[in-house]
Amino acid sequence: MHTALTESVAAQHDRYREENGFTDTHVDANNRIILRAGHIDAIQMPAALGDRVRIELSRQLLTAPIIENCCTGCLTILTNGAPAEDTRSIYLFSKLYRVQAIRTPKGALIMLPGPADKVRVWLDAPIGTFRPPFNTAVAITLDAAKTLPRVVD
């Protein structure tokens, strides 16, 4: 997805809804594009883990929209919504890991990159309405986490 810096937030919001199926979005009072989790879900993680997940998604020929937060270094991977019966906690990993992945609970707000956003950028822009299944992304994330160094308390 190419975003022109001259594109308005409203125009980009409309494009997200039309081209990418981000139907649960709105533009807030601060002119940010907000997606409410539910139909679309997300897993946020530090880049060290996110890079491993991104490589495995690619190896499996899966594409996922991935947002990079330039201030925190965290990556947010957008997926299809979690199954309604999914009762996993928000934190996917124990405190023994140096890094944690956090899933979005239903109704959580996900900030999407805007045209002049200096904080959030697409590392991998959305391609149409394709997103990996939530459970697939979780499995890949959990497997990738096993390759991270453990920290001793």
Summary keywords:
153 residues, alpha+beta, five-stranded antiparallel β-sheet, three-stranded antiparallel β-sheet, 3 helices, globular
Fold and architecture overview:
The protein is α+β, with helices and mostly antiparallel strands. Helix content is 24%, strand content 24%. It has a five-stranded antiparallel β-sheet with strand order 6-3-5-4-8. It has a three-stranded antiparallel β-sheet with strand order 1-2-7, covered by helices on one side. Helix 2 packs across helix 3 (134-145). The model has no long low-confidence stretch (mean pLDDT 87).
Q: Order of SSEs, N→C?
A: HEEEHEEEEEH
Fraction of residues in helices? 10-25%
Order of strands side by side in the largest beta sheet? Answer: 6-3-5-4-8
Q: Strand count, sense and closure of the main sheet?
A: 5 strands, antiparallel
User: pLDDT below 50 for ≥5 consecutive residues: which ranges?
Assistant: none
Strand content: 15-25%
Number of strands: 8
How many helices? The count is 3
Distance between the termini: 43 Å
Task: Please tell me how large the radius of gyration is.
Answer: 15 Å
- Summing up helix and strand content along with how strands pair, one would put the structural category as alpha+beta
Averaging pLDDT over every residue, what do you get? 87
- Which shape, going by the Cα principal axes? globular
Summarize this structure briefly.
With 153 residues, this protein is an alpha+beta fold. The chain is built from 3 helices and 8 strands. Strands 6-3-5-4-8 form a 5-stranded antiparallel β-sheet. A 3-stranded antiparallel β-sheet has the order 1-2-7, with helices on one face.
